[in-house]
Structures are given as C-alpha cells and as structure tokens.
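Lecture notes, part 5. Sequence design as translation. It can be helpful to think of inverse folding as translation between two languages: the language of shapes and the language of residues. The source text, in structure tokens, appears below.
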C-alpha cells in the first residue's frame, strides 16, 4: 500500500472542467482543524486532474464546472 492508503497504482483521481472563466478549486486540509491550503483558478475549457492526499481531505469548487469521479459526474449548474 502507498502512504495515502490506496493500493500502489490505484489512486483515485478526479477531473474538474471549467464551464466559465474564474472557477475556483480550493483544497481543504486533513486533521483536527480544517483549513484552506491550496487554491487554483480555472478558465473556461481548462481541466484540472487532482487526487486526495494525506494533506487534502476535501475539495471545494466554486463556479460553473463539471466534476468527473469514479462515482459519477457532477455538474455544478444542476
């Protein structure tokens, strides 16, 4: 197993595709105090490929985007 609890080579990735300029993707920390630790800004058509890590326990997406995960697709406009 790798350090993040997943079997080596089996890490879960997710994709965020911006449907408008200025979509914010905010990483939140893991631990007793949840804090913002990383922010990215995507413009229309830009794609971000990401994964949860030992430091990131949650992701907040602000703006119009499509998020693809192994659990399904989420469209923030619906």
């Amino acid at each position: 197993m790798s350090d993040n609890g997943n079997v080596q080579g089996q890490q879960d990735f997710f994709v965020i595709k911006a449907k408008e300029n200025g979509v914010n993707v905010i990483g939140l920390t893991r631990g007793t105090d949840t804090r913002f630790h990383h922010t990215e800004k995507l413009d229309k058509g830009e794609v971000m490929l990401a994964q949860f890590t030992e430091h990131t326990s949650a992701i907040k997406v602000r703006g119009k985007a499509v998020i693809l995960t192994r659990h399904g697709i989420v469209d923030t406009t619906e």
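The translated text above is only one of many valid answers, since several sequences can fold into similar shapes. The mean pLDDT is 85.
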